[in-house]
């Protein structure tokens, strides 16, 4: 059996740990051969591959990024995309593919198996932790740790100048990074995409914090949108999913807080720092287990499935339903955090 492996979509700490686990178990336990496809679906589409064996995955466990490279190429939107993939898989004598990615990459894997019979197994990844089929995705814990450390650091500089510090974290459609890092870092306000925020209420929380002589930290997810309809219509744009977004919400909010409260405010946008560098121990553990179980799914011929974490168990779920629904923060979970605001 020869198995192709690819990583697609935005990179994420833990991808190399998955690749390593797949190759080591596949070679040592089942005698499989592996081919690494470069740059997500671009690899099998263009026959862009590299050898993948035990020596080539040595030492990569703690490394961020992906040794295979990544892209957002979608072969299903290209003329003859599926035919080219078939030809390149045949040329390299590939029997099956393990695709490691988020909803787009796994959506392609699901259709390649479901509609075209190309054998695929999926491994979920996203720092946003917004895939409903799995309790956690690797990369999320690392991102939360990085954001929490940033919030800890921003507390001390905010206090020194008695300023408001707004921290913008990743999360286009789900506020998991904002919620977890905000709670862990003791933020005074947390704003998420799932609940439109009221700027007047944010300013009231900010002012109440100053009244007890502490400087407030506001954590805002990049996809959070103010309720103030006029501003959204003027500045908001729609992303690829049709969601309204205020680009640069952190910057906008800091200016608005200054204007309304008269307090000095600054913004820190964490951006891709949340995705780079070495994975946390939890993410290495989860990524390694996902890799080990993905090889078992190949051994069992369980095509069209994705590995997922349920409690402490790794299970398999059908790819088509796994990517269908986003996991978002519920109103109850947000309300639980809200009692600490201000
Ligand atoms: O989906 C993961 C994610 O990190 C989002 O939180 C973020 O909006 C997006 O990727 C940014 O991706 P890129 O800059 O690679 O297009």
UniProtKB/TrEMBL annotation:
The record marks 104 as: Important for catalytic activity and substrate specificity. The record marks 125 as: Important for catalytic activity. Non-allosteric. Its EC number is 2.7.1.90. Keywords: Cytoplasm, Glycolysis, Kinase, Magnesium, Metal-binding, Transferase. Pfam families: PFK. Its cofactor is Mg(2+). Diphosphate binds at residue 10. SUPFAM superfamilies: Phosphofructokinase. Mg(2+) binds at residue 103. Its main location: cytoplasm. It is an enzyme of class 2 (transferase). Catalyzes the phosphorylation of D-fructose 6-phosphate, the first committing step of glycolysis. Uses inorganic phosphate (PPi) as phosphoryl donor instead of ATP like common ATP-dependent phosphofructokinases (ATP-PFKs), which renders the reaction reversible, and can thus function both in glycolysis and gluconeogenesis. Consistently, PPi-PFK can replace the enzymes of both the forward (ATP-PFK) and reverse (fructose-bisphosphatase (FBPase)) reactions. This is Pyrophosphate--fructose 6-phosphate 1-phosphotransferase. It comes from Streptomyces polyrhachis.
């Amino acid at each position: 059996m020869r198995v192709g492996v690819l990583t697609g979509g935005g990179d994420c700490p833990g991808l190399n740990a998955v690749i390593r686990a797949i190759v080591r178990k596949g070679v040592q336990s089942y005698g499989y051969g592996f081919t690494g496809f470069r740059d997500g679906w671009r690899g099998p589409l263009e026959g862009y591959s590299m050898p993948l064996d035990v020596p080539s995955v040595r030492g990569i466990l703690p490394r961020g990024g992906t040794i295979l490279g990544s892209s957002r190429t979608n072969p299903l939107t290209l003329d003859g995309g599926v035919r080219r993939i078939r030809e390149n898989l045949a040329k390299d004598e590939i029997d099956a593919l393990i695709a490691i990615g988020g909803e787009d990459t796994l959506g392609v894997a699901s259709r390649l198996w479901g509609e075209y019979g190309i054998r695929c197994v999926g491994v979920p990844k996203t720092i946003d932790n917004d895939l409903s089929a799995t309790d956690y995705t690797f990369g999320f814990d690392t991102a939360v740790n990085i954001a929490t450390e940033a919030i800890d650091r921003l507390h001390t500089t905010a206090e020194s100048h008695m300023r408001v510090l707004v921290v913008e974290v990743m999360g286009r459609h789900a506020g998991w990074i904002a919620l977890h890092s905000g709670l862990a870092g003791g933020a005074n306000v947390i704003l998420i995409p799932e609940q439109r925020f009221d700027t007047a209420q944010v300013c009231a929380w900010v002012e109440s914090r100053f009244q007890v002589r502490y400087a407030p930290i506001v954590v805002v997810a990049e996809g959070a949108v103010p309720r103030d309809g006029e501003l959204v219509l003027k500045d908001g744009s729609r992303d690829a999913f049709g969601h309204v977004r205020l680009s640069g919400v952190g910057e906008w909010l800091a200016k608005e807080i200054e204007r309304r409260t008269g307090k000095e405010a600054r913004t820190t946008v964490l951006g891709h720092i949340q995705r780079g560098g070495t994975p946390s121990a939890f993410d290495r553990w989860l990524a390694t287990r996902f890799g080990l179980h993905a090889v078992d799914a190949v051994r069992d011929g369980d095509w069209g499935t994705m590995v997922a974490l349920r409690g402490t168990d790794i299970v398999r779920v059908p790819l088509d339903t796994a990517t269908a629904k986003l996991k978002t923060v519920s109103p109850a979970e947000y309300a639980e955090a809200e009692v600490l605001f201000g």
